[in-house]
Pantothenate kinase (Caballeronia sordidicola), 209 residues
Amino acid sequence: MESTIEDRYMDRLQQLVASGQRSILGLAGAPGAGKSTLAQAILDAFPGRAVVVPMDGFHLANVELERLGRASRKGAEDTFDSAGFVALLSRIRAQREGEIIYAPTFRREIEEPIASAIPVMADIPLVITEGNYLLLQRGHWNAVRSLLDEAWYVDVDPKLRVQRLVARHIRFGRDEDAAKTWVQQTDEVNAALIELTRARADLVFEWPA
């Protein structure tokens, strides 16, 4: 996927970092839409001035998903610590000078979150958070939108998105049939819900064909 950011999007990003004050940009979208790719492209475009805090760091641990009976739906809205995510964004919003805030990340190779893996420094003007449910209007998720200075909905051709998801699942250990089944029964169910939230975004970021 092409990771070049078009000028119309770069202009908005420049405005977010121009003041030097803390801004939080949310990148929402369905699984496989390219949110992480876009976050990395923005990070590369603003070296030393941005940090990425992914929502995926708040996946519940596999042992807890098993206890709750939700392991087969991993990635659904209730398989994350949404309250913890909101609490972290609130801390980042109110970060004091000299304070370091640590955020978790998610390692696909082990399918587990890792705590305190991402340092967020107080002098970084742009915090990018990306994830499926940033614009969802229920439960703790409903508090996320008000903590974002700007929210983008990341979109891509649905066929390409599904192909990317299948390839991702194969790359991290599933066989082709299992990967396709997971995409259709889990990822695409979540994608349908996430699509309903796009109207809450400030803009729709479309990857070039």
